[in-house]
Amino acid sequence: MYTFKTTNKKVFLTLLISLFSLSSFAQDEINELFKANAGDATKLIQAYMNPFFKGFGYGLNSGWNTTGAAKKFGRFEIRVGLTGSFIPEQDKTFDVTQIGLSNAIRPADPSKVMSPTIGGDEILGPTMKIYSNNVAVGEFTLPKGAKLPFVPAPQVQASVGLLKGIDVTLRYVPEMDLGSKSGSVNMLGGGIKVNLLRLFAGKMTDKIAPFDLAASVGYTSLEYRLPLNVQKPGSNYTNQNLYAKFTGMNYEAIISKKILFLTPFFSLAYQKAENNVELRGVYPFQIANGVYTDLTNPVQINGSYKTGLRANLGLQMNITFLRVFASYSTGDYKAFNAGLGIGIGK
């Protein structure tokens, strides 16, 4: 018999499948980036993973609202949604000479400097040579892309109505162990939506305006931990893991009109996303052929992304207690959002 925890776990295993695929990338592809020094490894990992960090952060900001109407007092809804952010062409590759690498790592062929990001094609990047005192002492090949069709991000949330056209939303998933190769995840966030017309006009709203207009703000934080296994010949390092924290702020204005059981909606949103990614533990870095140095907690990546205004156009369908919704967004990363909800009342 399935428990809620088991079902929730399966939802996250599905929605975050590309994030969990980092286990194979970290142990196979990203291992190749542990060369020369921590500074260069940080820059290479950031350049390679940048579209994933960006798309996932944007996705966390999505799915807050599918109507401008606020729920009446005590009415509630629980929903699960998924946003898929499409990686633009310019973020599917990066130039290894433009990311600030030191002289310790250089392209073996100066004419081959473009490398795929995680969203790029499944082809290997250029060969890089490792230098010590300006003498080549080793080489490695940058990893191939995963050719992600989109970057998925989940939303699991519950909303309840308060007084005067206000409702609040909670996003929460307790820490879940997803298996020894997939790590663990938890999510926490909250939001508030105000139906502006109902707040100021009260019960007269339905008579003076044929639509609903609302403003909202929402915050989401998701933490992910992934066990790693980066070794050198004859070693047995333990307690290696990748820690990632994604946060997002979303400010949104929504207008909608209910027509029978359908509610088309349009919104304009301003959002900000941040990520903090760390490699924790002791890792061997290859500084020459067969020569390694151990570094503790060697990589920390912090990113902040602002999208400016993002337009969303979508539709919600109400069938008794069931809600089905879908929308499409424009912005730096175009995206779709879709999901299901169960609620009582409007």
Q: How is this structure best described in words?
A:
The protein has 346 residues and is an alpha+beta fold. It has one domain (4-344): Lipocalin, CATH 2.40.128. The chain has helices spanning 4-15, 17-20, 22-29, 38-60, 196-201, 205-208, and strands spanning 76-85, 93-95, 105-107, 114-116, 127-132, 135-141, 151-161, 166-177, 184-195, 212-227, 241-256, 262-280, 282-288, 291-296, 299-319, 322-329, 335-344. The strands form four sheets. It has a ten-stranded antiparallel β-barrel. Strands 3-5-6 form a three-stranded antiparallel sheet, with no helix packed on it. The chain has a two-stranded antiparallel ribbon with strand order 2-4. The longest helix has 23 residues, at 38-60. The radius of gyration is 23 Å and the shape is elongated.
Topology (SSEs and partners):
Elements: H1 4-15, H2 17-20, H3 22-29, H4 38-60, E1 76-85, E2 93-95, E3 105-107, E4 114-116, E5 127-132, E6 135-141, E7 151-161, E8 166-177, E9 184-195, H5 196-201, H6 205-208, E10 212-227, E11 241-256, E12 262-280, E13 282-288, E14 291-296, E15 299-319, E16 322-329, E17 335-344
Antiparallel strand pairs: 1-7, 1-17, 2-4, 3-5, 5-6, 7-8, 8-9, 9-10, 10-11, 11-12, 12-15, 13-14, 15-16, 16-17
